[in-house]
Design brief:
Length: about 120
């Protein structure tokens, strides 16, 4: 389950930001997760709950926004949602495809508590 290492990586970034900016705790971690990233959202949530204990994010929740990828055919220019990884353009059958987005996993923002106040 590679989601465990991803969750630990998220916590590493959060802890680094805490040291840099001096906030006390994190209540919400907002993520952007691409549909083609290969990350299972539920497994990531489960893994995050395991790694957050004893950290500044012990009570934090993950707010995950899904990003759909797009597929562009380099031959005919057709654009279509890339819900999976097709091998041919659905419009013309060409195999010359370009994926745009849908593979990201980004921390978008943190909702933090500095001195009893919540700030973004």
């Amino acid at each position: 389950m590679h989601e465990l290492s991803i969750a630990q990586g998220i916590m590493d970034v959060v802890e680094a930001e805490r040291r840099k900016h001096g906030f006390r705790a994190v209540s919400v971690i907002r993520l952007r997760l691409g549909a083609l990233s290969g990350v299972d959202e539920e497994a990531l949530r489960f893994a995050f709950e395991a790694v957050r204990d004893g950290t500044c994010a012990a009570g934090a929740t993950l707010d995950v926004a899904s990003e759909q990828g797009m597929l562009t055919c380099r031959k005919c220019g057709a654009r279509t949602p890339a819900d999976d990884r097709p091998t041919a353009c659905p419009a013309c059958g060409s195999g010359d495809l370009a994926f745009e987005g849908g593979m990201e996993l980004d921390i978008v923002s943190l909702e933090v508590d500095t001195d009893g106040e919540d700030t973004d």
